[in-house]
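Ligand-bound model needed. 3-phosphoglyceric acid.
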Amino acid sequence: MGTANEIFDRNYNNIIKRLELAGITPLIKIDDVKDALPLMGALTAANVNVVEITFRTSAARDVIKMISSKTNLLVGAGTVISIEQVNDAVGAGAKYIVTPAFNPKVVDRCIELGVPVFPGCSSATDIEQAYEKGLRVVKFFPSELLGGVKMLRALSGPYPFMRFIPTGGIRADNLNEYLSFNKVLCCGGTYIVPEELLKQKRYQEITRIARESVNKMLDIKLDHVAINTDYATGTNLLKTFSKLSGEVYVESEDKVCGIEVVRDGKHDNLGHIAFSSPNLERCVYYLEMRGFVVDPSTVVKENGKIAKLHLSGDNAGFTIQLIRKQDP
Ligand code: 3PG
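Prediction:
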């Protein structure tokens, strides 16, 4: 088991890891518990499996209970503003708590229960209070109105050890700007489950929004194609591509016009097709849900982060490689 603090730390670290992989968590206001399971189905169809249910309706506790007992989704409770709500949320199965403001009583109760808490902070003063409680991740709210990434960069100067969950004004089109700042753990937003669509039970539409948002976040793009061959054949190929593009052939360069030629004659397949994504840990998290498997022997890390890897399996003689999109 362990002490209250040890239990808190273990749960805290696990939830932090999971939120970072997810990248985006929908903030959901749900009035009718009957909508909970169909909505969860709509979200899982888009590989969204971390949700924050906000205590903005009287159904919140029952919704959390339903999700935690009937699905595998990771469910957190949001808009928690009292000790009673912490007790209700945790009793119903919420695995973490998010609050709009820094409330020391709420934070203390969560720590006492060993339940990760992400208090809302909007200033340096709030951040210091959270830090004093031993927390290192806070919700940043309302993010866009407070200055967004610019403000987060400024706050990270004196508090480089803190990470943030910005919410308030996050949409599919500014999500990546936030996630590209390494102090941002993940983002929260109501845009994935618009209240109107939920009321009208337009679940397919919600799946579409969630899927588009995940795709935009992963930003998987074709980077290059690599052809495996021997030295002489490969050199001829590189010369042909150089002539075609008008570039001068350079002996030491293996890539022309986005085509890489591997001239070592050591491979028994045709080559690989490489796709880039800004965060390969997150990309793998989602691709595994889509049924892909990483070939563990191919994982290359740089500064503790995955820089490239291959997926298992053959694709018409090619493997699929993932490479981390370099920051501009
Ligand atoms: C929150 O609780 O963090 C905000 O209400 C979320 O804001 P949004 O509606 O702009 O996502």
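Residues 221-324 form a domain with the 2,3-Dihydroxybiphenyl 1,2-Dioxygenase; domain 1 fold (CATH 3.10.180.10).
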